User: Fold these one by one.
Assistant:
Number 1:
Amino acid sequence: MNVSIIVPMLNEAKSLALCIKQLKALTPQPLEVIFVDGESGDDSYQIAQSSGYLTLRSPAGRAQQQNTGAAVANGRILLFLHADTILPINAISLLESSLNNNFIWGRFDIRLVSSLRILKTVECMINLRSRWSGIATGDQAIFVLKSEFIKVGGFPSQPLMEDIELSKRLKRLQHPLCLRESVITSTRRWEKRGVWRTIRLMWRLRFLYWLGVPANKLAQAYRHDR
């Protein structure tokens, strides 16, 4: 299978056992899995390394970590996966069949598993917005042909909205393939901050980014609101 899965991580020790278990359950298996640690203060690096998967170190920053993994990846297809996101068991087959049919990039639908009913609505809105706009977020497990990833310069060197910017660059080449199969992602940020507060924050940041506010200033606002 010609898929490289790249997992950036920062203090993800609590998520990694499930992440590794789910990766090993994929059928068929990917060509490789590459963990890239961004200066974690916990045991993330050691846990990932003990899994047998290639584990690298990188300066902190999701964009740089993902670019570091992509630079050494051997797969024709790159799949960028957050450590707290679970792929469907047939994800590799889905990617190979999709990207062999003239698509160059895409993403999965997202599913939020929570006792909070409002998050079901949030989930639907995220998927609809992404399908309409052609913009994907990292939580949706973006995948792309490595040749096209290189062509657009990879993830931009910025501390926030790197997934939005990559989507914009790739969208100029082709509208994304929006798979209806879902990845399951953590709801911890929603539950920690509060659903409505999180919605307001993310919409405000994306609107400001659309207006041209630099990503480093948005990152400051994001950290201040945590």
Note: The chain has a mean pLDDT of 88.
Number 2:
Amino acid sequence: MNGAVKKILRFFYYFPSNVRNRIRYFFQGVRVGKEHETKGSLYIKNRGEIVFGDRVRINSSGKANPIGGGDRTYLQVLKEAKLTIGNDVGLSNCAITCGEQIAIGNFVRIGAGVKIYDTDFHSLNPFERTAKPEIPNVVTKPIVIEDYAFIGAGSCILKGVTIGKYSVVGAGSVVTKSIPTGEIWAGNPAKKIGMVPGVEPISE
């Protein structure tokens, strides 16, 4: 089967989910760029602002990316928070919760099962956390993922982190500190394990 036929079949296979997601975007106030494609059914809860750039590709089903790590993509933006996703970005079956600001650059790849949270969700004080009603003394700090970064499957990116341009996060990592440009980090907590090959000739 040639590439053109595969492309046509893929279009018709995912056409219903793309239509459903477009309806979700409309009612959730999501701004979507050109040539957007979503494979599968998204979960979106937008109480702030969500902006997609051009040619964003989202996998949101086990069939769309069957490497494990969840079967949908979840995007949750809390009141007055902002999630921006740049041009030519690919996301697979990941979960993003934005309590303040998450900015994803251009040409970023985010693997299956990745979780990105700019908030602690609950107070770190046990008495505030278990009070009835719970006292919402929650810490949030913006996250920035710069152009060409690659986040490996199953990783967790936590509040206040910047992942530098071209940098790579190894699969299953927990990132609690900012990663400079062109570095490879992995582990829990993530630490530098190397440099990205080929970055020097194209660095700014």
Note: Helices lie at 3-28, 126-130.
Number 3:
Amino acid sequence: MNVLLTRRFRFSASHRYWVPAWSEEKNLQVFGPTTRDHGHNYTVFVTLSGPVDPVTGMVVNLSDVRRWVDPIIEELDHRRLDRDIPFFRDHLPTTENIARYLWDRIASLLPEGLQLAGVRVVEGEDLMASVGVAPFMDSARFSFERPLQPGVMMLGRRYRFSASHAMRVKEWDEEKNLQVYGKCSRPGGHGHDYILEVYIAGEVDPETGQLEDVRNLDQAVQRVLEMVDHRRLDQDVPYFRDRVASSENLLLFFYGELSKTLSHLAGLRLWETENNVVELWNR
């Protein structure tokens, strides 16, 4: 039986998106402000899979993991990726291509019996790309793993909105609503700062280095978020007039709406609080 072990790494770098064969107009049309030199703080999660050694009690010594990966991270740290790293002179330094680059470099270093299960690159706080296992945005939040098909890339984006609700079944009396939902049933309602994570999966465009234009993704998600942001869900949103405004139903609402425009939608994760999260994945 294999166990998954994840180690986090960090680096900072700058880059720009530019396809030399394209005109300036087309580059600006496709990549927008990312055609200008800019930088990010990156977080990299490397997930390894292997059996637990009966003597050491470890899948792998973390000192070895650092010995393999630290030099690769150091090559990227405080660099202009598209100029300083040969790979990115021919491949745009997108989050997706950085994840693929790290996957190939790290996989070639591992000893027999130890497998690379996933590489996740988080750009800033709200954008990530993952190869191998399903992503989590940062180590402060729960990790939910889901294997992907070989070669499939996953792109994740985090969004925030605020809404209020009361959890009540209209046909129930006050006593039963209170019994089932507790203080969440109070008629005056209550609110949350929600976090919605949207994941799409597929093949990266070899020319743009992107799985999806993030601006298109943002536009599709914002259209749906406008329906619920700064709303009283159980009163202002038609979907919840006949449904309890629970996180589970809110997740189903998002999935139904986003599926209309995002053909490669892989899954959603909705945080109601830091302690309460629901998710839905395509299987």
Note: The first strand starts at residue 2 and ends at 15.
